[in-house]
Write a structure and sequence with these properties.
The complex is a heterodimer of chains A (about 110) and B (about 110). Chain A is mainly beta and about 110 residues long. Helices cover about 0% and strands about 55% of the residues of chain A. Classes of the chains: A mainly beta (about 110), B mainly beta (about 110).
Chain lengths: ~110, ~110
Amino acid sequence: ETGVTQTPRHLVMGMTNKKSLKCEQHLGHNAMYWYKQSAKKPLELMFVYSLEERVENNSVPSRFSPECPNSSHLFLHLHTLQPEDSALYLCASSQDLGNEKLFFGSGTQLSVL
Amino acid sequence: RKEVEQDPGPFNVPEGATVAFNCTYSNSASQSFFWYRQDCRKEPKLLMSVYSSGNEDGRFTAQLNRASQYISLLIRDSKLSDSATYLCVVNPRTGNQFYFGTGTSLTVIP
């Protein structure tokens, strides 16, 4: 148990669907992240939130929409995805931004058909 | 040039062997360095931080060479349970980005 919980663990969706990924951290951390992990590629940072405020958006397509209602919860809303968006989506948290260690959730394995 | 580069392997070693992984980084101003371990179909988990003076945790030793911009991980007396992918992670302290390597795959064979 890492203290970061993600749901669902697996998700299959069509290109016209709308779905949301949920992340909750129980560590009292102030920063939360969304990462994408594709086969044979390094983890790609998508979004960073610090104290519920988005501080980084790494040129992610608008079909991915993050939401951070409070410092413990992070969502990733998905709509009109493409097959190449199929990947493992990992949520992480750290005590603060900067040099802090990352704690990851188990991830959501997403398949877009 | 990639921010972080690792030899993807795979490394297949017998139990009890000593194995070493290297990782190079491109930003000379980088300040924080880590090794993460990722088991198949699982999330990455912090294995150890890498300090300038080098550090050891049981069978694992991490070292940093700032002049050559690389970090290393040494695993002694390999166990079957060490089989995993080892991710090199660098934080350049500019912005909020942690840069990950693609990982080095290790399989320890009985």
